[in-house]
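user: Kindly work through both lines:
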Amino acid sequence: MSVEVAQTEFETRLASTRAKMKEAGIDVLFVYSDEYHPGYSFYYTNFRTINCIEESAHALFIPLEGEIQAFLGNLNRFAAKRFSWIKNVNNIYDMKNLLPKYVNELSYQVKTVGVVGEELFPISLYREMENAFVGEGINIVDAGEIVVKERLYKSKTELDLIRVAGKLADDSILAALEKLQVGKTEIELSAIGEYVTRSRGGEIGSAYLVVSGPDHTNLPTWRPMERKIERGDYVWFDFNPSVQGYCSDTGIAVAMEGASKEQIRIMDLAYDTNQRMVEFIKPGMTGKELFQETLRLCENAGVVDYFLPYTKGMRAIGHGVGLEVVETPDLGPNSDFIFEPNMVFGIKFDLHGFPFGGVRVEPTVIITENGAEPVNDLRGLRNKFETNYK
C-alpha cells in the first residue's frame, strides 16, 4: 500500500497553526525537536534528523506570515535541504545572530514568541534562543499545547500510515515468533524483527524489545540481552515500527512449552482484559474512565497487586501514538481528556511480579465514531505461534 503525506497537507497544518497562534496572541512560534522526539518539527517539515556525530537538533521559526526558517546541526542541514519541503535551512549554532535578523525582517512587530518543545531543549541552546529574543525585548511563553492539540487529531492519510505501521509491526513480530525456540537469545529475536521492519522500508520508531524469563519479564521495560530462551518461559515482544514517520506501538506475550497452567491462565487473562479495554472505549468518555474499568477488571480477577504498582506516573495503561511511539496524552487514573474520533492510542495491559514473570499485551487503536479500531491482530499472532510451535 503506497501512502504519502502530500505537501498540501503540510500547508494546511501550517495555516491551522497560524490561526491558533493569532487566537493566543503569539507572533512567532519557535519549535524544537530532536531525533528521539521528532514529532513537533516533523509535523511541519516531513523531515527527521539523524544523530550523526553531532546532536540532532531541529528547530523551526514560524511567523504569522511569510516563510518558515529551519535550524539544524551543520551535518543535518545538507539532508534537510534535499528532503524537507522547508528550504530555508540555517545552522542552529547561528541562532544568536539570525533570530533577531528574521524578527526584524517581518512586516509586523513581534511582542510574544511561543516556544514548543521546551522540555526537549538542551540548556545551552535554549539560552541562545532566549538571549536572542529577550535582547529584542520579546516576551517568551510556553505554547506547546498548540501543536500538541494539532497533532492529536489525525488526518485520513495519517491514519492510513498508522494502519500500515500496525501491519508491519505484526509482520515483524510474526517473523520473530517463527524463529522462537528454546536456545534462541533475546537479541537474535529482536534483530529478526528489526530486519523485517527495515527490509520493508520501515524505520525503528523506538527500541525493539524482546524479554524472557522471570527476571526480565517482571520488569516493565528492559533491553534485549544475550539471555537464552528456556522451557516454561514467558517471552514478550514490544515492536514499534515507523512508516514515513508514523508509528505503531505493539506488544504481545507468549508462553514456551513447559509453562504451568497458572502461567497460561494469567496470559489468557491479559489478552482477555486488553480486549475488554479496547471494546470499552467509546467517544466522549474520559481516559480515567478506561483506567477505572481496567482496575475493576483486575479487582474481579484478583490481580490488583500485579497491576497497580506499574500504573503509577506516565503511560499507566497507554498513551497517544503518532509521529512518535509515545505521545501525549497519558492514560491513567487522572486522565481528564476525552476520547474523540481520529485520535490514536496504544492501549497497554501489564501484569508483573509473579514468580514466573510478567506479561504485556498492547495494540495500537484508532478512535472511531463507534469505538476503537485495533490496527494489530495480537490474538492472531499468538495463535499462529501456538499452532506452529506446538
In short: The chain has two domains: 7-151, 156-389. Residues 156-178 form the longest helix (23 residues). The radius of gyration is 23 Å. The mean pLDDT is 95.
